[in-house]
Design brief:
447 residues, alpha+beta, Aminoglycoside 3'-phosphotransferase, Chain: A, domain 2, 7-stranded antiparallel sheet, 12 helices, 18 strands
């Protein structure tokens, strides 16, 4: 099995070790959920890389003696001792077993299922295909199960923060209905989270990029004159974000960070930049400007409010429902250490993440349409209009304008852009100029 999984893992969208040599794959946990054909087992595998580092991943595996169904042929992993092994997250028969246990609650050979709501175990499931770092199954257009693929020992902040906000009465989150845990490296670890499926919700990214396309199609109109103007929604999203931040500060730990913490933050930003420079040489011309911005944070003496935050906030993490905006996926950036994702941070990190997302929504189409660079000024106009509207809404909700902390906000925007540079270099090289262009503008190094 280990050789099959070792060859198969790098081809999966959610696998975080792409481009790294794998030394070994060991199945450290095995739970049989079905012993009749097809056999279904839940597995946690420990992946060791050539550089000695390692990661843990969660799998749901099916195995059958018969001919694999045509609808599952693309999920085949290979032949294992005369059985056809496949990724059972694509198999409704297998994923129905997870729903059954989530509805029932209780322990199954080391897997702990917790039910906190009314869950119908008979709902049919289908896999969502748009995700990258995790895998989600929608059951009957009523509930959605997010299965965390890359595992880090401990409680996932997604359930911790979402449950705290829901218990406090927030209308901006989807209440956890059930979840399940297992042991990873001897520590109880969140494996999956079940929530209501907001089937009529529209993803913020889709709405924003549709607005940009409307603007590009109307070459003689400004952003505020186009029928698909998004600024009103951006302002409402700013209000929702501000209110969620306030509630998080009230219901979860918060503090004031002093000069020592500011120096630590700057050191962390420098470390991330060092790592990015080693991967993406195109970042080098902007390194001095980036470091100057980070050094300004190290010299800061004013206290900074810190609290639990979303941690990976962008337009793909919000849905517009009939009732208003809903914020999703409070797990933070999956590639970051769990301790970092659960740490207290400035809420401006989330603001910066959303401002970066507006910039991406406006400019990524230009990366795909290099012959239409004349639209760049329209993209800039759209981005600034919606960034400003978001900040206006946020300021109204919290009573303080994030733009008043321009230095800190710019540092966090640049940090996010550095993260994006590495991601694009590894996954979408054609988009690399989107974050690089933003860095150039933010450090005043446009050419």
């Amino acid at each position: 099995m280990s050789d099959l999984i070792r060859e198969w893992l790098p081809r999966q969208r959610w696998f975080g070790g792409k481009g790294r040599g794998i030394t070994s794959v060991t199945e450290t946990s095995t739970v049989l959920l079905q012993v009749t054909d097809p056999v279904v087992r839940h597995a946690i595998v420990h992946v060791v890389y050539d550089d000695g580092e390692s990661e843990d991943y969660q799998l749901l595996l099916g195995a059958t003696k018969g001919v694999i169904e045509q609808r599952l042929e693309y999920a085949v992993i290979g032949d294992e001792d005369g059985l056809m092994l496949y990724d059972a997250m694509h198999d409704p028969v297998a994923t129905s077993l997870l729903l059954y246990h989530l509805a029932s609650g209780g322990d199954v050979d080391g897997l702990s299922f917790v039910n906190a709501g009314d869950v119908d175990p008979s709902l049919p499931g289908h896999l969502m295909t748009a995700e990258q770092s995790n895998t989600s199954v929608v059951y009957g257009d009523a509930v959605i199960l997010k299965v965390f693929r890359r595992l880090q020992p401990g409680a996932n902040p997604d359930i911790e923060v979402t449950k705290a906000l829901a218990d406090a009465g927030s209308a901006y989150v989807a209440r956890p209905l059930a979840w399940f845990d297992g042991l990873v490296e001897g520590e109880t670890t969140t494996l999956g989270l079940l929530q209501p499926y907001l089937k009529n919700g529209a993803e913020g990214w889709a709405m924003a990029t549709a607005s940009v396309r409307d603007l590009f199609a109307e070459a003689d109109l400004h952003a505020d004159e186009v029928g698909g103007d998004f600024a009103g929604e951006s302002e409402r999203l700013g209000v929702a974000t501000g209110e969620v931040h306030q509630l998080m500060a009230e219901t979860l730990p918060s503090a004031m960070a002093g000069p020592t913490e500011s120096r630590q933050t700057a050191h962390q930003l420098h470390e991330r930049l060092d790592a990015a420079l080693a991967v993406v040489p195109e970042l080098a011309p902007y390194a001095d400007g980036l470091r100057a911005t980070y050094d300004a944070i190290a010299d800061r003496t004013e206290p900074v409010p810190v609290q639990r935050v979303h941690g990976d906030f962008h337009l793909g993490q919000v849905l517009r429902t009939q009732e208003g905006w809903v914020l999703l996926d409070f797990e933070g950036e999956p590639a970051r250490p769990l301790s970092e994702r659960r740490a207290l941070m400035s809420p401006l990190r989330d603001v910066a993440g959303m401002l970066r997302s507006f910039d991406y929504a406006a400019r990524h189409l230009l990366a795909e349409r290099p012959d239409e660079r004349h639209l760049a000024y329209r993209a800039a106009e759209w981005a600034e209009r919606n960034r400003g509207a978001f900040c206006d809404g946020y300021a109204r909700a919290v009573g303080a304008d994030p733009r008043d902390e321009a230095e800190l906000l710019r540092a966090f925007e640049l940090d996010k852009a550095v993260y994006e540079v590495v991601y694009e270099a590894r996954n979408r090289p054609a988009w690399l100029q989107v974050p690089l262009g933003s860095i150039a503008r933010l450090v005043g190094a446009e050419r």
